[in-house]
């Protein structure tokens, strides 16, 4: 049973530069007191990527995430994928999670396509035998044919995407997290990719989708979160939220033009 | 209490994802030699030629018989390569796996085990030099050699916490891997790898204060048909216990922060 509960979950990202990371500074600073996480140092910039998010999601929900660049969509997805533990507040996520944030994770450029299918499959939590069992499905879907025998460094970025997408969507997690992966590749592939994604989403208990393609959000999600500045501005049925979001965007555009 | 549980869960989670670190460790080695004809054999060839070259030079400098010096040097160099590799690469464990860490919720200990796997495999390749040298030099072999196995376990227990601790520190402070490299290089010269402990004097402070000397001795001595001293075992064991306690404390406090440091 998949379930997501966030209570006042915040994420503060400390961006270190070489000065901020320098050991010398730290030792000097330690001499006058402070902890490893002390960020009063001016060379460390703190970004409040998520600010006190409260969220309750239960099995069966399909949730869209909208907002401008830097609104906190990807950070929220990372919290949901158990990659970022909230720096304050709580996040309880039950169920097997699969994040499709960067499709090429765990790919090795010197290995062949076939080897990478197994590599990626194991990274996604399969046994080697199970990962090898993915091969026929990936072969058929990716249409890479003989290329699967070549090292992936010889692939074009489109081919790499086909392979990564085919493997990543072959597993069946309880919670699926998607970041801007709809509409990938060339037109014919994009269509098939969407069908395949549909299959994956249908079988998952919970899905989160962050996208700037408003149509995909309307099509896939019943509930939508609108994020701005790390906060949830609006949380409700997709149509309501999208209408508000789109009219706000239109108003902003008009203001700029006028 | 809850946090101590979390630290233990990190360790348990790391071990249970054995499929992943075993596979990544193997593919790390395979990748390094992917396009070379002799592949992984290169590791062994380069180490063997270094041992024979150094054996010729240093047996003369130290006025030692080649037949007794070569087994000593070969075991020293091969084992030191393993120890140094685990420490140096351990410090980079999180930094080199950053793209994976930022996308999955695997236990951080997985990446430490990846580095250890890679180094154990390299060590296994280089290890074939040792029986060859022992046979060629006609060194005595007895049941004492079996003590090599507990020695190796002790060494791994130590190297794993060292790698873990350094990996955490290095993720936060990027100067640490550089510092570690120089320290390990210096340690090579002050640890009895090339010279025999008694050449320095058995109670020389450099030997007594150098924990790596004890670590090296518990794995190397059995191969040379010597029973390691009780003191070496005590130091290696004590270091493993204290080191893991210290490391678990760091894991408990900072494990959740690591992903934000990458």
Automatic annotation (TrEMBL), chain A:
Matching PROSITE patterns: ABC_TRANSPORTER_2
Keywords for the protein's UniProt record, in alphabetical order: ATP-binding, Nucleotide-binding, Transport
Residue intervals of the ABC transporter domain: 23-254
Cellular component annotations (GO), alphabetically ordered: membrane
Gene Ontology molecular function terms on file: ABC-type transporter activity; ATP binding; ATP hydrolysis activity
InterPro entries documented for this protein: AAA+_ATPase (IPR003593), ABC_transporter-like_ATP-bd (IPR003439), ABC_transpr_TagH-like (IPR015860), Bact_Polysacc_Export_ATP-bd (IPR050683), P-loop_NTPase (IPR027417)
Protein family per UniProt: Belongs to the ABC transporter superfamily.
Name of the molecule in the record: ABC transporter ATP-binding protein
Annotated organism of origin: Bosea caraganae
């Amino acid at each position: 049973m998949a379930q997501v509960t966030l209570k006042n979950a915040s994420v503060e990202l400390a961006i270190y530069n070489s000065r901020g990371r320098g050991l010398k500074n730290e030792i000097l600073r330690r001499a006058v007191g402070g902890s490893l996480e002390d960020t009063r140092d001016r060379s460390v910039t703190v970004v409040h990527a998520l600010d006190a998010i409260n969220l309750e999601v239960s099995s069966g929900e399909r949730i869209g995430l909208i907002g401008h660049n830097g609104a906190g969509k990807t950070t929220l997805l990372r919290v949901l994928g158990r990659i970022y533990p909230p720096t304050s507040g709580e996040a309880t996520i039950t169920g097997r999670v699969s994040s499709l944030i960067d499709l090429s994770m765990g790919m090795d450029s010197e290995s062949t396509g076939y080897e990478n299918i197994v590599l990626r499959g194991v990274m996604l939590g399969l046994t080697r035998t199970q990962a090898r069992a993915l091969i026929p499905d990936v072969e058929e879907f990716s249409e890479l044919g003989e290329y699967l025998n070549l090292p992936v460094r010889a692939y074009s970025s489109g081919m790499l995407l086909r392979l990564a997408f085919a493997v990543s969507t072959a597993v069946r997690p309880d919670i699926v997290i998607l970041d801007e992966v709809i509409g990938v590749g060339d037109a014919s592939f994009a269509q098939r990719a969407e069908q395949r994604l549909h299959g994956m989403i249908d079988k998952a208990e919970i899905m989160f989708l962050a996208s700037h393609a408003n149509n995909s959000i309307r099509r896939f999600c019943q509930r939508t979160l609108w994020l701005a500045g790390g906060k949830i501005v609006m949380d409700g049925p997709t149509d309501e939220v999208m209408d508000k979001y789109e009219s706000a965007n239109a108003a902003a555009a008009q203001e700029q033009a006028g | 209490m809850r946090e101590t549980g979390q630290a233990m869960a990190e360790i348990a989670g790391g071990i249970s994802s054995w499929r992943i670190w075993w596979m990544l460790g193997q593919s790390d080695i395979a990748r390094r030699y992917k396009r070379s004809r002799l592949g992984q054999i290169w590791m062994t060839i380069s180490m063997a030629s270094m041992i024979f070259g150094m054996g010729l030079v240093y047996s003369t400098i130290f006025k030692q018989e080649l037949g007794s010096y070569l087994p000593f040097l070969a075991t020293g160099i091969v084992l030191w390569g393993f120890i140094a590799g685990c420490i140096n690469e351990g410090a980079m464990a999180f930094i080199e796996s950053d793209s994976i860490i930022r996308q999955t919720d695997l236990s951080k200990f997985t990446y430490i085990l990846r580095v250890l796997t890679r180094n154990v495999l390299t060590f296994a390749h280089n290890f074939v030099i040792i029986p060859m040298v022992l046979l060629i030099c006609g060194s005595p072999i007895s049941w004492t050699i079996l003590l090599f196995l507990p020695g190796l376990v002790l060494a791994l227990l130590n190297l794993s916490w060292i790698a873990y601790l350094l990996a955490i520190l290095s993720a936060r402070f990027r100067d640490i891997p550089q510092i570690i490299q120089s320290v390990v290089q210096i340690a090579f010269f002050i640890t009895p790898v090339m010279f025999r402990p008694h050449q320095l004097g058995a109670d020389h402070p450099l030997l007594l204060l150098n924990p790596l000397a004890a670590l090296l001795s518990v794995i190397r001595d059995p191969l040379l048909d010597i029973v390691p001293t009780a003191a070496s075992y005590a130091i290696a064991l004590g270091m493993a216990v204290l080191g893991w306690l210290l490391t678990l404390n760091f894991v408990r406090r900072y494990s959740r922060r690591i992903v934000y440091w990458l």
